[in-house]
Amino acid sequence: SKLQEHKESLTDGEPRDLLDALLKGQTSRGRGQKSHGSEGAGITDDHILMTAAEAFGAGVETTSTTLLWILAYLLHHPEVQERVQRELDEQVGAERPVSVSDRGRLPYLDCVINEGMRIRPVSPVLIPHTAMTHSSIGGYAVSRGTRVLVNMWSIHHDPRLWDKPDLFLPDRFLDDQGQRVTPACFLPFGAGPRVCVGESLARLELFLFLSSLLQRMSFRLPDGDPPPNLQGRLGVVLQPLPYKVIVTPRSGWEGGAIKVGSG
């Protein structure tokens, strides 16, 4: 198994990935327990596997739903899709697939992803928190032990924080010089010690998936069909209602092939 492979190749150096970090925690925790004579309270293999599964599972579910929302909004705003594709054509071209190293050269694509996560957060209400001490929020007293829920939908649609919050405007994440900005009120993954453990994975997946899709294909509505309903349906996550889309390969990507060399 992957876990066993990581155990056998684990070194004292920097962890290579999440499994390495968890295994190092298991090892150091085990040494500490021996000195205190305690048993059964350490990090087990099951804990490691469940934590890894949670990180990847949460990332995959929320990522696929976020992509569906972004595509739905692109069908409402074809000019945004065209602008992203122009950026991809200018910065990457059609000679190779998009890579992680291209991220810094694709600011508008990043803004589209951020705006998709802002306007339709897949988790409108974040996981519960518990007040560890007597405190206050916005002038309201919060007693120790109180369960606190963060209303992400309200934060992301507050007109005091966002200009025209109900409109899909990716440019709100660019400053006057065209540089990316991240407002403090943009919290799609939460904040603090309880921030989503899958944030880095989800952001990477969203970038690679959306950039690859828009580099290779164009999306449009079937003739005569209305644009997608943007109300959504709340379940485990906020999902868009089913919609139809016509996908066509862009020039140079017919058949999925990458043009290499001069031919």
From TrEMBL:
InterPro entries in alphabetical order: Cyt_P450, Cyt_P450_CS, Cyt_P450_E_grp-I, Cyt_P450_sf
Binding site for heme: 196
GO terms under biological process: hormone biosynthetic process; progesterone metabolic process
Keyword 4Fe-4S in record: no
Cofactor dependence: heme
Pfam families xrefs: p450 (PF00067)
Example of a GO MF term: iron ion binding
UniProt KW keywords: Heme, Iron, Metal-binding, Monooxygenase, Oxidoreductase
Family: Belongs to the cytochrome P450 family.
PANTHER family: CYTOCHROME P450 FAMILY 17 POLYPEPTIDE 2 (PTHR24289:SF19), STEROID 17-ALPHA-HYDROXYLASE/17,20 LYASE (PTHR24289)
Designated name of the protein: Cytochrome P450, family 17, subfamily A, polypeptide 2
Encoding gene, per UniProt annotation: CYP17A2
